[in-house]
Design goal:
This protein is an alpha/beta fold and 297 residues long. 31% of the residues lie in helices and 26% in strands. It contains 9 helices and 15 strands. It has a 6-stranded parallel sheet. Strand 13, helix 8 and strand 14 form a beta-alpha-beta unit. Helix 2 packs across helix 9.
Length: 297
């Protein structure tokens, strides 16, 4: 029985290849190494006017293809669509799209007449010509139902908790109500308490935060969030914690967008900042390659 299972895994791997979009080369390489499957030789370039060119340089007939590409910023959506079409020129067995960071995920509601539900539109269009979609930590898990093919959302909280563990935090903080369950889950893994702040957004970069009754004096505090964009929420939360006497503030997120001067904004009161490699940047120290590899088997 052991030999039979081993042979099944080898057979699957021999028929699988990975195509990396330009947004996810590091993660694609790690998935390739974890699974023992080859990367496809492809070409991606931009013309002087900004238009994208892609080409597959090897035969993909009778292969199970995994395309790894983010859909943020907008140029990556075009690249994704072109790569899907290029892959479909071959007689492949299947095409799985791995979208580590699903762009437009935070536009999942219609607030005013005349607005689209952008997340829904993107999910529907990204489903075209693929057989399956795997993504990581959607901003709203309900988005998964808008994909038109078999879809799976991977949760990276366990990997984030493992990285937090090395700093021996005393408490996990959710910076707003959106990460309460995430903070609770990580606190249970670490065996420490959690607390949630209340946030009111002033504009796209400024927020007001109420900490509530909390004692953090001389404690190591872990803040967890799904997406860090401008860094305004984290910078404000970290400053409040330091003002209350926290000895160290450790911040971890799944998707590190770090727009503009976000990193500079947070560095004053954040002692350690890390993210996963769903978006590749200098803080991408936690990999989700094993989680994706398990979902692809």
């Amino acid at each position: 029985m052991i030999l039979k299972n081993f042979l099944i895994v080898i057979t699957i791997n021999l028929n699988m290849k990975i195509v990396s979009g330009s947004s996810s080369l590091m993660l694609s390489t790690r998935i390739s190494e974890v699974m023992g499957v080859p990367m496809v030789h492809r070409e991606i370039k931009r013309f002087p006017d900004g238009e994208c060119y892609v080409r597959i340089h090897e035969n993909l007939d009778n292969e199970d293809i995994v395309l790894v590409q983010n859909t943020h910023p907008d140029g990556n959506i075009i690249e994704y669509l072109l790569l899907v079409d290029a892959i479909r020129q071959y007689r492949i067995r299947s095409l799985t799209a791995v979208i580590p960071y699903f762009g437009y995920g935070r536009q999942d509601k219609r607030f005013n007449e005349g607005e689209p539900i952008s997340a829904k539109i993107m999910a529907e269009h990204l489903s075209e010509n693929v057989d399956r979609i795997i993504t990581v930590n959607l901003h709203n898990s309900e988005i998964i139902k808008w994909f038109k093919v078999e879809s799976k959302e991977i949760k990276a909280e366990v990997e984030i908790a493992r990285y937090f563990e090395r700093f021996k935090p005393d408490m996990v903080i959710s910076p707003d109500k959106g990460s309460i369950e995430r903070a609770r889950f990580i606190s249970q893994i670490l065996g420490i308490p959690f607390h949630a702040f209340q946030k009111r957004r002033i504009d796209s970069e400024r927020v007001e935060i109420e900490t509530g009754d909390i004692d953090v004096k001389n404690k190591v505090i872990a803040i967890v969030d799904d997406v860090i964009s401008t860094g305004g929420t984290i910078a404000t939360a970290a400053a409040l914690l330091k003002n209350k006497g926290a000895s160290k503030v450790i911040v971890g997120c799944v998707h590190g967008l770090f727009v503009g001067n976000a990193l500079q904004k947070m560095q004053m009161n954040v002692d350690i900042l890390f993210s996963t490699d769903t978006i590749e940047n200098e803080k991408s120290v936690v990999t989700v390659a094993h989680l994706i590899g398990d979902s692809l088997k």
